[in-house]
């Protein structure tokens, strides 16, 4: 059967290990020069829009919503085809989440559905770049109107939409650097924004502390003095992990190329299969393919999942519609709310996709999928 193939895996080389070791041998472990360098390096991939590094993609979403000033009574319009954190962090800020349906082919937030969901209480429209394919950002920005557009780009750092890099279009963009993502800091994330939004996110990731005497209410207290004007949390990503991130960013372009090669091989190999539907790529999209989201038709997704897992191929399903989680069910959300998302979920199966996959690994996955239809 061969070794177990996970659906995603980090790609760590000796240069990454040395970058981390260099920090461990130095004076800084937490917030030091490697943080500033990593944030600067990230801006090189966002069209120059600055970044704030945080401890996870979830922390990035939480900090972004806090930066947006989200509070009780506000609404966030978002996609259900995402990990629960996109919605949960908005709820934790006191907002009401309004789920709008996705496009049937990309599983990204449908601008028409989002437009129908926007009200005078909408503070943020949160799009998700599902599988690494950028959302319809221009249309969604128009839909948002006076609200802020947040791009949950956990899957898509290094991608572009109509020639503009992910991170340069939305008012707020969030990244995740979990090991299965397009680059890793082990755990980590970032908020990308400009001006006051960036500063609010930066303050939130450090307890909301105000150290600038000119901004303090009681600056004469003493040289040790610091104040909290708005609540924040400790979401600081340490130097040791930021060093790993900077090292990984040097290979982001090669990661992107290899993911695209594997993605293209799968699509070509399954083109003649009637029982599946392969992912689409919209004109103007330059994805970094985080997932290969195969659609298994005719109610056979579970059977395909079990078949491939028995072969040691670690397929996954990404994701159950967010409002299916009991925590949202208990808030009154009901199944049937977003039919396209629920149909997509019923068919979706993520095949292994990460840069270290060998050609024989890819052949093994292809053979496993094709064998399912010969059985």
TrEMBL record:
It comes from the Bacteria. SUPFAM superfamilies: PLP-dependent transferases. Keywords: Antibiotic biosynthesis, Pyridoxal phosphate. Belongs to the DegT/DnrJ/EryC1 family. This is UDP-4-amino-4, 6-dideoxy-N-acetyl-beta-L-altrosami ne transaminase. It comes from Amycolatopsis minnesotensis. Pfam families: DegT_DnrJ_EryC1 (PF01041). The lineage of its organism: Bacteria, Bacillati, Actinomycetota, Actinomycetes, Pseudonocardiales. Its cofactor is pyridoxal 5'-phosphate. InterPro entries: DegT/StrS_aminotransferase (IPR000653), PyrdxlP-dep_Trfase (IPR015424), PyrdxlP-dep_Trfase_major (IPR015421), PyrdxlP-dep_Trfase_small (IPR015422).
């Amino acid at each position: 059967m061969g070794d177990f193939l996970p659906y995603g895996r980090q790609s760590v080389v000796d240069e990454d290990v040395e970058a981390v070791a260099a920090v461990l041998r130095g004076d800084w472990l937490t917030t030091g020069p490697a943080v500033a360098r990593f944030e600067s390096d990230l801006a090189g991939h966002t069209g120059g829009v600055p970044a704030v590094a945080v401890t996870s993609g979830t922390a990035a979403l939480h900090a972004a919503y806090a930066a947006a000033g989200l509070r009780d009574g506000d609404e966030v319009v978002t996609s259900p085809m995402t990990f629960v954190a996109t919605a949960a962090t908005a709820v934790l800020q006191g907002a009401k989440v309004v789920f709008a349906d996705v496009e049937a082919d990309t599983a990204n937030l449908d601008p028409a559905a989002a437009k129908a969901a926007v009200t005078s209480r909408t503070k943020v429209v949160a799009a998700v770049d599902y599988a690494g394919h950028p959302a319809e950002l221009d249309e969604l920005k128009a839909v948002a109107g006076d609200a802020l557009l947040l791009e949950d780009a956990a899957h898509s750092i290094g991608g572009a939409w109509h020639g503009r890099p992910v991170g340069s279009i939305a008012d707020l963009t969030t990244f995740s650097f979990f090991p299965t993502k397009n680059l890793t800091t082990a755990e980590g994330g970032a908020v990308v924004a400009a001006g006051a939004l960036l500063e609010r996110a930066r303050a939130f990731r450090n307890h909301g502390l105000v150290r600038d005497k000119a901004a303090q209410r009681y600056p004469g207290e003493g040289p040790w003095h610091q104040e909290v004007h708005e609540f924040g949390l400790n979401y600081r990503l340490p130097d040791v992990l930021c060093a790993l991130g900077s090292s990984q960013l040097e290979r982001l372009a090669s990661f992107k190329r290899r993911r695209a090669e594997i993605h293209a091989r799968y699509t070509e190999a399954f083109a003649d299969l009637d029982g599946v539907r392969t992912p689409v790529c919209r004109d103007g999209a330059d994805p970094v393919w985080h997932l290969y989201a195969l659609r298994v038709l005719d109610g056979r997704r579970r059977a395909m999942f079990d078949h491939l897992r028995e072969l040691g191929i670690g397929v996954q399903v990404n994701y159950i519609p967010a409002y299916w989680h009991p925590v949202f069910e208990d808030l009154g959300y009901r199944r049937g709310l977003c039919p396209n998302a629920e149909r997509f979920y019923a068919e979706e199966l993520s095949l292994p996709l990460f840069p270290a996959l060998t050609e024989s690994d890819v052949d093994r996955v292809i053979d496993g999928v094709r064998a399912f239809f010969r059985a």
